[in-house]
Design goal:
This protein is an alpha+beta fold. 42% of the residues lie in helices and 14% in strands.
């Protein structure tokens, strides 16, 4: 329940997002994912990412540098989980790797000459030891060297063959486990866990206290009307959005954005340089309230209910 509560607090805590991000940054300082000590993302990672992403995308790069572990985690999740066009990727500035310089030819020559001197010194020591052995009394003799019998050689060869066979079996088992791990990852990171529906914007107006935000009243059919706050004021006017069909995520926890309640996320597409942003157009013939599904993915309805185990 920890990460469900975090998502609820983050969406509903106006002005406290930086403090919550700081806590998340500390929690991720020794981990790659939110649950467990491995590298496999869970449903908790997907939910928290979907909750934090809209806020992080509007924060300046200078502010984001205060949360390096959050940025590392978000970059990992968005590259390993296939969100498609549902969520916009966060641009993370990565440091350039500067490999160590190789030794110069002159240094290599000096190294070789010093090693040759060491070898020559060792030869002198061996000679002096040899002369010392020659001066030993006649009564002292060296122990005879043991020779391997043919039977011992055969046993050694059969032992080596057994080792080679066991190594081959281990490699086969490892290759069999690799596809299973990939299948587990695909089943765990399923974008259809998000409840995406078609809606119709009945009204749109400017946010009373934020120039970059618009407020939309979106009809989902059967009397279900949602109020959603979106960061579209720089790209669309309220008139452009009125009576327009859109696609939105509806199973997110309602929360306030600048003191105005929001109960959904309108999905948008943008150019590569983010100079133009527009809401996604639903599939042709889609009805208001109809859920958007993806070929090859099992449909999950009710995101928060499916996460009660956490």
């Amino acid at each position: 329940m920890k990460w469900v509560k975090f998502s609820m607090d983050f969406a509903g805590s106006d002005g406290k997002q930086h403090a919550l991000l700081d806590n998340l940054n500390k929690d991720l300082s020794q981990k790659s994912v939110l649950l467990g000590d491995g590298l496999k993302p869970s449903a908790a990672d997907i939910v928290v990412f979907a909750t934090v992403q809209p806020f992080v995308s509007c924060v300046s790069n200078r502010e984001l540098q205060k949360f390096p572990h959050v940025l590392r985690w978000m970059d990992y999740i968005q590259n390993i989980v296939d969100f498609g066009t549902t969520l916009q990727k966060i641009n993370v500035a990565k440091s350039v790797f500067d490999p160590p310089s190789h030794p110069k030819k002159g240094d290599k020559g000096d190294t070789e000459s010093s090693s040759k001197k060491a070898v020559s010194g060792q030869k002198i020591v061996y000679k002096s030891n040899g002369s010392a052995d020659s001066k030993k009394p006649a009564g002292e003799t060296k122990a005879p060297e043991k020779k391997e019998t043919p039977a011992a050689k055969d046993n050694k060869t059969s032992g080596d063959k057994k080792k080679d066979k066991s190594a081959g079996k281990t490699a086969e088992k490892a290759s069999e486990k690799a596809p299973e791990k990939a299948a587990d990852k695909d089943s765990e990171c399923n974008i259809s866990i998000l409840n995406i529906q078609v809606g119709l914007i009945r009204k749109a107006w400017k946010h009373p206290s934020a120039d970059s935000l618009l407020v939309e009243e979106i009809d989902l059919g059967d009397g279900n009307v949602r109020q959603v706050v979106s960061g579209l004021a720089k790209y669309c006017s309220p008139e452009d959005l009125t009576n327009r069909h859109v696609v939105l995520i509806t199973n997110v926890k309602p929360g306030k954005l600048r003191d105005v309640m929001s109960a959904g996320l309108v999905l948008c597409a943008s150019t590569e340089d983010h100079t133009a942003v527009e809401p996604l157009i639903p599939p042709e013939g889609a009805k208001i309230g109809e859920r958007i599904s993806f070929a090859g993915y099992f449909s999950h309805v009710g995101l928060m209910e499916s996460l009660k185990m956490f």
